[in-house]
Amino acid sequence: MIFQDPYASLNPRMTVGEIIREPMDIHNIYDTKEEREKRVRELLEIVGLKPDHIRRYPHEFSGGQRQRIGIARALALNPQFIVCDEPISALDVSIQAQVINLLEEIQKELNISYLFIAHDLSMVKHISDRIGVMYLGNLVEVGPSDDVYHNPLHPYTKALLSAVPIPDPDVAKQRKRIVLEGELPSPINPPSGCRFRTRCPNATERCAKEKPKLMNVGENRQVACFLYEK
User: Which residues pair with 138 in a beta bridge?
Assistant: First the structure.
């Protein structure tokens, strides 16, 4: 896993080498300490850091460098699947691009799959092959990245995408923003039936009584909305 906060996710009392080596120590990967240290240096190079950083402590690095250390730790056990929990939201915009490019390079070189959790919709489209949209802890739409962005189905997905900034003023003026009314319900005490119904412009009485399930609506597309029942 790659955590959201590059400052809180690294033990300040451990060196970079100890942080990256810890998963190997716990799971008994490699036979000797020398082999593990060699692997740590390799991982530092993979994430764009210098091998001699192995003796330094987290406070000696910037936020972007700390997140690279977190990525190296996630790679320590040669995983096939990594959970990226908002891995760039705490970083400056210029650093975000560097970390995303690094993740893409690692994905191609090591053939790794990511579950990329984020609220930055532009970044989600850039890095994702498939997208799942959630509302109050429930998946409301799933599909290929291009399909979800160019042809959103669920009312919540449509509202989300209408709020994405567009760098072209002329195009932005022509686009209609969908503004949701009402307050966001409490996740602890969600509405009955469809959790989005209290803010949905298409809600019916049925939405208050039944919870829609994800249903197939074409090739590789799923949506949880009664509007698409056949």
Answer: 135
